[in-house]
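Issue 218. Parser rejects a valid record. Input:
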Amino acid sequence: STTSCPRRTIVAWHGVLTLAFEAWPKPMAEIKKCITDMPEFRSFSENFGTRWPKLTLAALNDDAPPLTLDRLRDLTALCQEFDAELQKLGAVPLTHCSIVMFASRSLEHCLC
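Output the parser choked on:
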């Protein structure tokens, strides 16, 4: 088990709600490096969004229509309201790590 401090909630690509952390805890950073160094993954360049520590809170189905600008603004405002409370938490324990290959960003269809 390790800990990390949540920084803020973010509406990421395709309306995915994420919780961003201050930094990758050392054990997670080591696991991430091991995965990145695997021969199966060396030929792939890492997506920008996977370079910073975060977890997915919610996601739209792949076939959902894009967020309108008004909905994006509304979600962003809600995230900012939540962030004020989030800062009161301090460090949170991280007890599990899973590697998931997925067929849809909502993780409704996992490959393994």
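Fixed in the parser; the record now loads. DSSP finds three helices and five strands in the chain.
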